[in-house]
Amino acid sequence: MKTRITEMFGIEHPIIQGGMHYVGFAEMAAAVSSAGGLGIITGLTQPTAEDLRKEIARCHEMTDKPFGVNLTFLPTLTPPDYPAYIDAIIDGGIKVVETAGRNPQEHLPKLKEAGCKIIHKCTSVRHSLKAESIGCDAVSVDGFECGGHPGEDDIPNMILLPRAAEELKIPFVSSGGMADARSLVASLAMGAEGMNMGTRFIATKEAPVHENVKKAIVAASELDTRLVMRPLRNTERVLTNEAVERLLEKERELGANLKFEDIIEEVAGVYPRIMKEGDMDAGAWSCGMVAGLIHDIPTCKELIDRIMSEAEEIINRRLSGILAA
Ligand SMILES: Cc1cc2nc3c(=O)[nH]c(=O)nc-3n(C[C@H](O)[C@H](O)[C@H](O)COP(=O)(O)O)c2cc1C
What we know:
Bound molecules: flavin mononucleotide
Largest sheet: 8 strands, parallel
CATH architecture of the domain at 4-208: Alpha-Beta Barrel
Strand content: 5-15%
Helix content: 40-55%
Order of helices and strands: HEHEHEHEHEHEHEHEHHEEHHHH
CATH topology of the domain at 4-208: TIM Barrel
CATH class of the domain at 4-208: Alpha Beta
Oligomer: single chain
Radius of gyration: 19 Å
Structural class: alpha/beta
Shape: globular
Number of helices: 14
């Protein structure tokens, strides 16, 4: 399959693995890229820029295919040393950077000068248009279904993707709720040039997380995610567990008076305990509604090959058959 996205990123299949905190290590990115998709290392999971340098080098040893790095611009008072992370990305020969969170404009000149293509993750049409206007090369359009931060507009992909297609000139991929060949064909039909998956890639053999995390995703239905931190306008879609229900109880009790400090126990520093130790009640962790469509733990290659062959089947048989009938 050839789209503007496969051409732009030099990949075989129009499938991207979105940056994921404590999941996007070299093992994850290399497995997706080796299978013909675009794997992405999560920059800020590495505690320092020096660690990111080493992680990029490790990934180069595992695959000779292109892979990217995610840089998430967080709304914090003491930001990480972004310029140093960007140097690590450039020196590591990375040519695709997935940016997310705040407007990445101030960091674009350096990245673009080094020949990096920028795909910015956006949860709205207006943010996508902004990304286009500041020189991003592509957009990952992240619908309300998504695992992680869906923004505050709550527009699902059935509306958001065709709206993006109406407005954008640069190519975009669908993101949020994508799991299989049906997702890919539907995304293409709505104007996307590929799809980005998060949650689906955690339930793969190579995902470097505890087995409990993979099993929790397979066991979950589409009803099992919750939106937390909505009162703080930092909404996150997470899988429900004891900590999440406790957090939501605090949100109900405190209402508009809720402060980050009130829920720090449920959200701060919980990822290593969940992803590494498999302590599934340690706190809130991002997970999409798409968990309801995830029923197995294949290798990344099995998953991507299955998506591509079933997509062909849907287009050539099911859809063509309907037309011919
Ligand atoms: C466990 C987890 C951690 C994530 N961490 C990040 C992150 O650090 N930065 C980021 O830009 N997106 C992050 N995301 C969002 C994904 O890159 C992707 O946009 C999202 O998972 C798409 O929705 P889906 O889960 O329905 O496929 C994370 C998602 C998950 C599930």
